[in-house]
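Page 47, continued from p. 46.
Same chain as before, 131 aa.
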Amino acid sequence: MEMTVTFPGGARVDAQFGPFTVQTDQPPHAGGEGLAPAPFSLFLASIATCAGIYVLGFCRQRGLPTEGIRIVQRTETDPRTGMVTKLGLDIEVPPTFPERYYDALVRAASHCAVKKHIENPPAFEVRTTVK
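Result:
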């Protein structure tokens, strides 16, 4: 997959891939206008939504309703470095959701490809090229 990043102005940075454009911006306190999520917020959202895809798939395969299910993601950061030190995902289900599937929901969410890539990171290669 190839992704192209462009700079449309201000602190905005967009990523184009396939038929999609993902827009980002920085919040006003960081020099942006806050017109779109910050890149790091999208990174965090990719973790939660990826887990959500796996929870959704689990429920669909079993004919379980997804109404009232939500995933709440919480992060803890090191105040010295600003780095995330812990990330928690709570899969909230309504009282009518069958209890026998609680652990299976956790296992399904744990299959998230984004989570697996964080746990086993790829090698990064960054370079400057002349086009």
